Amino acid sequence: CLGFPLSIFFIVINEFCERFSYYGMKAVLTLYFTRFLHWDDNFATAIYHTFVALCYLTPILGAIIADSWLGKFKTILCLSIVYAIGQAVLSVGSINDLTDHNRDGSPDTVAVNIALSMIGLILIALGTGGIKPCVSAFGGDQFEDDQEKQRSTFFSLFYLSINAGSLLSTLITPTLRATECGIHTKQECYPLAFGVPAILMAVALVVFVIGSKMYKKVKPQGNVMLEVSKCVGFAIKNRFRHRSKEFPKREHWLDWASEKYDKRLIAQTKMVLRVLFLYIPLPMFWAVFDQQGSRWTLQATAMNGDFYLIFSHVHLPQIVNPILIVIMVPVVDSLVYPLIKKCKLNFTPLRKMTVGMFLGSMAFVAAALVQVQIDKTYPVFPAAGQTQIKLINLGAVPATVQFQPQLKSVDVAPNEATGYMIFETSKLQSLHIISATLNKTEPLELLEGERYTLPFKWDSTGINSDLIWDNITSKPASGKSLVRFINNLRYPVNVTMGDMDFGLLDPLSVSNYSDVPKPDWTYAISASTSLSYCGVVSKKFGYGGAYTISIDNCVDSKLNIKYFEDMAPNTVHMAWQIPQYFLLTCAEVLFSVTGLEFSYSQAPSNMKAVLQAGWLLTVAVGNIIVIIVAGVSTIKEQWAEYVLFAALLLVVCIIFAVMASFYTYIDPNEIEAQFSKEEKEEDNKDQDDNEKEAEADSRM
């Protein structure tokens, strides 16, 4: 079909569905860790990158099984079944009601959810990792030796299908996650967000099986990796035995294996090791690249995500990557590279990868600049030994509040609030409130590192006050805004906002903070008793803020309310992440697409899956680097960590450029053909010698 083997279309469709499954699950994984399992950012980042590292370590196992035992087709088939089971187990493990016997909205035995989730992720890592080196190499096997151009186009189409699946899943699964589901209580629907990818993995498996009779299946050629390892080990041992000067040097250290292994295997091993040596600096690129799904996702939760999109729960910058990939791969392949070639510029694969690494470094410089702006908007929270107090005057007359013993005096206007004031916890003992002709002393028992709010009100009965523990010392982890209500009426009322019920509030009592489900929406706020009802429409709360809303009075069924801003909403817009995603996408096109093709083109025919596994192993090592940095780093500022990664990648980029300048490109097929020719000539010579001996014997 159009010069391509028909079988590759089944492989491309299979890859699209499998990548939808993987990236769809991965798109919500960090949020699943922080919001459902309630892990902190650093631990969630470490587990996320441990999972990704495992996904890229298992390709070695997949390559050994494919090249030595089952062959690529059966390996893909068997491990895809494991993969689909893992997705299903993860989906079941994310069901909130699984152990919620008391129906309070939280799992009674969260260890069960964690255990199922980890089992599911391990099976997914085994499945997706095991088939990774096989699928692309299996697609390459479908072409004849004279179809080099079609094979190159296939790798571009293959990568295009990866990112088409990634794009759709990044749009769909966050939206599925944001829908509410549950038997007893309605919460973010992770079972659906993980369940749809599980279904897509089952579809991928079915599509792959349908094309079974059309595939060109190359038989496994023995335990190649074991043979290579033995060959390398023997060469090192033999060289050590003959280290004295009396033994002449050989052209290559692997030639010391020639006493035991044939020239073809030694030559193939040389090809593989030359490429693997080039792979040494590459993990640093993946250490940067894969932080899209962890650090950059967490960075986005501290930004203003108001985009007015149909997919309102999608972080827009995240979908920039797959959108740009889908656009840029064909454009670069059919327009940019031919144009560079016409300009007679020798833009070799390794030079493309070098430029990609440089752009990856610049992407993290951009991320650091964005983080600096975000940090400027963060509120100041109490440090160790400190406490913060905010005053709200709900009365109609001004008041003066004295912090005892003689620490500070603050005037508070009617129906106004102060900001949070910082005090040393050990020194602050009480508050003295003076309003009109009345005064009151409020004794304090405060905890270090916490925030408190003191609403007070002067009326005919005196000064009423109630110290409230705020229980927030950080920006909302969900990225949404928080809201709570204070009853400034003289009688109890039931307060609701949209579908949220804040319960019955007594006079001057305060509700707990609750997440605003959709921060860019307005909500109907109501305060009611058994005899009356008042309502009003709220403002839009934005992202990352916290508000106290006072219920002041009701006139003609219209509720009068007052907003007090406890924490400013996020002001740095999420669109500022787009430049860093754009730079990283350009880096990916130049680095990853080229690397896949380079790995295949430089590999001997019987070691293509092994070299693909080596390429994927660099991704695993890159994620291990992130785990180490997240675990041992003493850097407190996130922007500084971004700068560290940018600097490391830039240094590695320079090292790789120097290494690449010494690399000589080869054609493995040509070298193997030469060996085949020599072997055939030797066989013919042996046959001629045997015939001559037989003729001589017959004469005798």
TrEMBL record:
<feature type="transmembrane region" description="Helical">
    <location>
        <begin position="110"/>
        <end position="131"/>
    </location>
</feature>
<feature type="transmembrane region" description="Helical">
    <location>
        <begin position="192"/>
        <end position="211"/>
    </location>
</feature>
<feature type="region of interest" description="Disordered">
    <location>
        <begin position="676"/>
        <end position="700"/>
    </location>
</feature>
<feature type="transmembrane region" description="Helical">
    <location>
        <begin position="73"/>
        <end position="90"/>
    </location>
</feature>
<comment type="similarity">
    <text>Belongs to the major facilitator superfamily. Proton-dependent oligopeptide transporter (POT/PTR) (TC 2.A.17) family.</text>
</comment>
<keyword id="KW-1003">Cell membrane</keyword>
<feature type="transmembrane region" description="Helical">
    <location>
        <begin position="152"/>
        <end position="172"/>
    </location>
</feature>
<keyword id="KW-0325">Glycoprotein</keyword>
<feature type="transmembrane region" description="Helical">
    <location>
        <begin position="642"/>
        <end position="666"/>
    </location>
</feature>
<dbReference type="InterPro" id="IPR018456">
    <property type="entry name" value="PTR2_symporter_CS"/>
</dbReference>
<feature type="transmembrane region" description="Helical">
    <location>
        <begin position="46"/>
        <end position="66"/>
    </location>
</feature>
<feature type="transmembrane region" description="Helical">
    <location>
        <begin position="271"/>
        <end position="289"/>
    </location>
</feature>
<feature type="transmembrane region" description="Helical">
    <location>
        <begin position="319"/>
        <end position="340"/>
    </location>
</feature>
<dbReference type="GO" id="GO:0006857">
    <property type="term" value="P:oligopeptide transport"/>
</dbReference>
<dbReference type="GO" id="GO:0015031">
    <property type="term" value="P:protein transport"/>
</dbReference>
<feature type="transmembrane region" description="Helical">
    <location>
        <begin position="613"/>
        <end position="635"/>
    </location>
</feature>
<keyword id="KW-0571">Peptide transport</keyword>
<keyword id="KW-0653">Protein transport</keyword>
<dbReference type="InterPro" id="IPR000109">
    <property type="entry name" value="POT_fam"/>
</dbReference>
<dbReference type="GO" id="GO:0015293">
    <property type="term" value="F:symporter activity"/>
</dbReference>
<dbReference type="InterPro" id="IPR036259">
    <property type="entry name" value="MFS_trans_sf"/>
</dbReference>
<protein>
    <recommendedName>
        <fullName>Solute carrier family 15 member 1</fullName>
    </recommendedName>
</protein>
<comment type="function">
    <text>Electrogenic proton-coupled amino-acid transporter that transports oligopeptides of 2 to 4 amino acids with a preference for dipeptides. Transports neutral and monovalently charged peptides with a proton to peptide stoichiometry of 1:1 or 2:1. Primarily responsible for the absorption of dietary di- and tripeptides from the small intestinal lumen. Mediates transepithelial transport of muramyl and N-formylated bacterial dipeptides contributing to recognition of pathogenic bacteria by the mucosal immune system.</text>
</comment>
<keyword id="KW-0769">Symport</keyword>
<keyword id="KW-0813">Transport</keyword>
<keyword id="KW-0812">Transmembrane</keyword>
<feature type="transmembrane region" description="Helical">
    <location>
        <begin position="352"/>
        <end position="372"/>
    </location>
</feature>
<keyword id="KW-0472">Membrane</keyword>
<keyword id="KW-1133">Transmembrane helix</keyword>
<dbReference type="Pfam" id="PF00854">
    <property type="entry name" value="PTR2"/>
</dbReference>
<dbReference type="GO" id="GO:0016324">
    <property type="term" value="C:apical plasma membrane"/>
</dbReference>
